Every structure is written in structure tokens, then in C-alpha cells.
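Fig. S4 source data, part A: sequence.
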Amino acid sequence: MKEEGREAKARSLIFRLLTKRVGELPQQLRQRIESLSLQQLENLGEALLDFISMADLQA
């Protein structure tokens, strides 16, 4: 249960940060992010620091 809670918190933070960085996320990208593991979310969180545009996220 703790793992699920950590994933939910990480996912929420990633969504907020991505929206602030690149704008509103398309539904398709939101669904892809919803399916990421905690490790993948953490990696995305680190990578998004270098994002400038939606193209960076899609890459």
C-alpha cells in the first residue's frame, strides 16, 4: 500500500511540474504517464528539469 501511495504522490507532482513546464498535457500523454512505474516517474521527474517544450516530453 505504501508503494501505491508513493506512486500516486509522485505522479501528481510530475503532472503539476510538467503542466507548469510545457502547458496542458494531451490526454494521450497523461495516459502514458499514468501507466509508469515509480522508478520511471522518478526518472521522468529528473529529466523534466531539462524540458523546454512538449517535443522534449514526447521524445
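Fig. S4 source data, part B ends here. The helical segments are 2-22, 27-34, 38-47, 54-58.
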